[in-house]
Amino acid sequence: MAEGCMMALRYGMVFFNLLFWLGGCGILGVGIWLSVTQGNFATLSSSLPSLSAANLLIAVGTIIMVIGCLGCVGAVKESRPLLLAFFILLLLIFFLEILSIMLFFIYQDEIDHYAQRDLKKGLQLFGTEGNVGLTNAWMIVQTDFRCCGVTNHTDWFEVYNATRVPDSCCLEYSDNCGLDNPGTWWTAPCYERVKDWLNENLVALWIFALCTALTQILGLVFSMTMFCQAVKVETFYA
Predict the structure, then answer these.
(1) pLDDT in tens, the chain (238 residues)
(2) 3-state secondary structure of 199
(3) Which of 74, 115, 178, 234 has the smallest CB count inside 10 Å?
(4) How many angstroms separate the Cα of 127 from the Cα of each of 3, 31, 122, 136, 159?
(5) For residue 185, what are the β-bridge partners?
(6) What is the largest CA-CA distance in the chain?
């Protein structure tokens, strides 16, 4: 009976980590595709120019693939070192996620202030040479969220040193429409629009977070159970 349970646990662990690994491959593939085809879409942050969607997906996909591979091979071979490495890596990521969430809620006001200041600093690079990615990112955000500037459309006045905004701020897009009357521009702040969107989708985000946490906990339990069983078997036959 115990042997049958361990066999089921091993196959479940292999299947779980195979899906985990395939998911990592998919995320990595999307990241590479974005990097190759949409490489000019970068971050909005001036202080973190490498923090683009493509780079994030590549990093996350690679980490998931490595962890999934460790778990899958460790389960097939019932290898104690691989199972232990899988457990430690997954536990470390789990604790880092919890710590990040705690720090976010504790320092939420400071993060808000820093993010707005950094985004405003990034506006100064809009349309400049070598910053096509940042320029395109702002155009997409303002068009999709129907907003203008970080905290107000007047943020752009300091960038242009004139009463004008990018054409992506216009209610109806046309060339040089950012030079028209302010009544033809979006006036909602992009920072608040994005925060409102996140709040509207808060339930979905929490469900995703809980599912992720549950998956990680199951992975920790399965791997440690198999590790302990492998130790018992090795001790028994020693």
Answers:
(1) 456 666 777 777 888 888 888 888 888 888 888 777 655 555 666 666 666 677 888 888 899 888 888 888 888 887 888 889 999 999 999 999 899 999 989 999 998 999 899 889 889 888 888 777 788 889 989 999 999 999 999 999 989 888 899 999 998 888 888 887 788 899 899 999 999 998 999 898 899 889 888 888 888 888 888 888 877 766 655 5
(2) helix
(3) 234
(4) 65, 25, 11, 9, 10
(5) 170
(6) 84
> In sequence order, which residues have a C-beta less than 8 Å from that of residue 185 and are 6 or more positions away?
148, 153, 165, 169, 170, 171, 178
> Which residues face 170 on adjacent strands?
185
Nearest to 53 by CA among 141, 146, 124, 151: 141
CB of 174 closer than 8 Å to CB of 167: yes
Distance (Å, whole) CA 213 – CA 219: 10
- Pull the structure tokens for residue 236: 């028994």
3-state secondary structure of 170: strand
Q: Tokens 């691989």: give the residue.
A: 82
- Rounded Cα–Cα distance for residues 190 and 156 (Å): 12
Burial of 153-186, coded b for 16+ CB within 10 Å and e otherwise, reads bebbeebeeeebbbbbbbeeeeeebbebeeeebb
Distance CA 136, CA 139 (A): 5
* Contact by Cβ (8 Å): 179, 187: no
Structure tokens at 198: 């996140």
